[in-house]
Amino acid sequence: RTTMKSLQFISAEAFVSNAEFARKSLGAVAHDLFPLLFKASYLLEQGEVIHDLVENWPLFDFNMGKLLGATLDYQEDLSHRTCSMCLESCLTGLRDYVLNQSPPYMKKLRVVDLTGIKDVEVQFCKCKKTMGRWARAQLLSKLCSELLVYLQQAQCNPGTFEISINVLIDLFVTERNYDLVVKALLKKCSCPLKICCVAFRSDNLSLQKFFYIIKLTDPSLLRKLEIVHNVHLEMEHLEMLFNNIHFPVLMSLTLPARTFNVRRFTATDEQMLAHIGEKMGEMTQLTELNMPFSILTGRIQKLLSPLKTPLKILDVSNCSLNHADMAFLANSFHANHLEALDLSGHNLPELYPSTFFKLLSHCSSVLRSLTLEDCNIQDTHVNMLILGLSPCQKLQEFKFIGNPLSSQALKHLFTFLCELPMLKNVEFPVPRDCYPIGITYPIDDTSLCRYDHQKYERVAEELNLILLQANREDVKASTPLFGSYDAAVQETNNELGAYLIKSFKETLEKFTTSFNKMS
Predict the structure, then answer these.
(1) What's domain 338-483's architecture?
(2) Cα 60–chain centre separation
(3) Which residues pair with 253 in a beta bridge?
(4) Does residue 333 have a pLDDT over 70?
(5) How far is the C-alpha of 58 from the C-alpha of 106, rounded, in Å?
(6) Which residue, among 304, 324, 322, has the nearest Cα to 313 in the 3D structure?
(7) Which residues have C-beta within 8 Å of that of residue 19, sequence separation ≥ 6?
(8) Predicted confidence band of residue 121 (pLDDT cuts 50, 70, 90)
(9) In 10 A of CB 307, how many CB atoms?
(10) Residue 507 has pLDDT above 60, yes or no
(11) Which residues cross the membrane (predicted)?
């Protein structure tokens, strides 16, 4: 698919394609052409030109999402191209903007927004080398620290110290880049480039380090907080976090697995849960809540009823919800606003079919994404599911991996899915008849790949043919058995794997020590 370019954009491409000429001529370029030249340079991966454009940026703001997004001159959105060379050129150009010899009054730049960059699975840049969110946090922190050292050692123009540029970024911090990011945040006041963290993700970090760095980020600016893998945050730590730190503009909160476990609850724990609910109620902008793999049986109302703003995104997958929880969700004011809902790991057809369909009907006018993985949806439930999904005309994504559905049932469902006008992505299960007879659901990891691969390929072809015949080539259908693509996990999987091995080794050593003492 080719995207139309204006004559102005074609001229910009021609100008930047000769890097040496473009770099020499930047001084004669009108200021309002810099955004156009930046997008053209990014498309052609002209790193040196990108660097010089940023180093000499003449405008008040530099917003990556807007600069690379769809424009009148070139409709294609390039913000999902996380090309390592282009992004490094941007960030080093920003450092050199501070250092170059232009008089301070010429330097108008006040805000750099890096938050519009999107990390995706398939990259279209020629170098095929990406710079993900973790690496961007690492490089920006490194450049800030180096800049400060240089300014302290060199004889700089006194006006350089008056430069103050807020750099908005989504920080992703693990054990491996923790020291570097902390160092940059501690020196924020004296550095001309000021890291402003608007979204923070933490993986593989001790609680002590997490609590320390979250205070340094300036929580008053934080719109999104993700505490995900190997941060051992439990309910009492969450209460401590909310008691000590105020998040006035927080819109999105993701908690790690097993933050809550009501099976171990005491009377004190019940009070603590209620208090956490009240604290979340004070977050008047909170519209996204992800709490997968916590055990919340019978407590959803206590946790969510204090919220004053309706949730738009809710993930309560594998949370052992009971009928009372589902009834609360279906009847709550959140139901009419839910744009993304994940109820995976709940036996919907057996436990609360009517309540689930009531919830679905309430959110049908706004629902964009629905995930029902491992929900025991069988062939006999497909007609009812179709009935429930029919009003969901805005649905863009439907994931239902791990359900015991036959090839025939999937074909029936796909014929219906073609009718949903906004649908773009479907994740469907390996058909039950591709597995050996007698397979039990949910399928354990050891049996997950033991299916008839040739038969699956034939069925997948037939399902894609149904889409093709309905002129729905725009719908991507796949079976990611081990979960959807996660850019953050992909970028740090080596560290994550090493951490898991270390944890397993420590557990084994403790077990051996205890066993030897008993012997």
Answers:
(1) Alpha-Beta Horseshoe (3.80)
(2) 28
(3) 225, 289
(4) yes
(5) 8
(6) 304
(7) 46, 48, 49
(8) confident
(9) 21
(10) no
(11) none
Please give the Cα distance from 9 to 15 (Å, whole number). 10
165 forms beta bridges with: 193
pLDDT digits 0-9 by tens, 221-265: 999 999 998 999 999 999 999 999 999 999 999 999 999 999 989
User: How is residue 81 written in tokens?
Assistant: 């191209």
DSSP string covering 36-83, please?
A: HHHHHHHHTT-HHHHHHHHHT--SSEEEHHHHHS--SSB----TT--B
Element (H, E) at 169: strand 165-173
Contact partners, residue 62, CB within 8 Å, separation at least 6: 54, 94, 109, 111, 112, 113
Amino acid at 442: P
Cite the residue boundaries of each domain of the chain with CATH code 3.80.10: 338-483
**Rg of the chain, C-alpha, whole Å:** 26
- Reported as half-sphere exposure (CB side, CA atoms, 13 A), residue 267 has a value of 0
Which residue has 């390592």 as its token pair? 84
Residue 504 clears pLDDT 60, i.e. is over it? no
pLDDT-based confidence at residue 354 (cuts at 50, 70, 90)? very high
Output the six-digit token pair for 27: 């001084």
CA–CA distance, 177 with 135 (Å, rounded to integer): 9
pLDDT, tens digit, 9 for 90 and up, residues 384-425: 999 999 999 999 999 999 999 999 999 999 999 999 999 999
What pLDDT, on the 0 to 100 scale, is given for residue 518? 64
Burial bucket for residue 21 (CB in 10 Å: 0-12, 13-18, 19+): exposed
| Spatial contact of 81 and 131, defined as CB atoms under 8 Å apart | no
Q: Give the pLDDT mean for 421-444.
A: 96
Rounded alpha-carbon distances, angstroms, from residue 163 to 27, 116, 117: 21, 24, 25
Which tokens is 322 given?
């009971």
- Name the β-bridge partners of 193: 165
H runs (alpha helix) in 322-444: 323-331, 348-351, 353-363, 382-389, 407-417
Token pair recorded at residue 230: 């190997």
- For residue 155, the model assigns a pLDDT of 72
CA distance 424 to 115: 24
- 196 with 168: CB under 8 angstroms? yes
Tell whether the model's pLDDT for residue 209 goes beyond 60: yes
* Rounded distance between C-alpha atoms, residue 32 and residue 460, angstroms: 50
What confidence score (pLDDT) does residue 123 get?
75
Mean pLDDT of the chain: 93
| CA–CA separation, 294 and 333 (whole Å) | 23
Q: Using 50, 70 and 90 to split pLDDT, how confident is the model at 269?
A: very high
Count the alpha carbons within 13 Å of 357 in the hemisphere toward its beta carbon. 15
3-state secondary structure 181-230: HHHHHHCHHHCCEEEEEEEEEECCCCHHHHHHHHHHCCHHHCCEEEECCC
Instruction: State the pTM of this model.
Output: 0.92
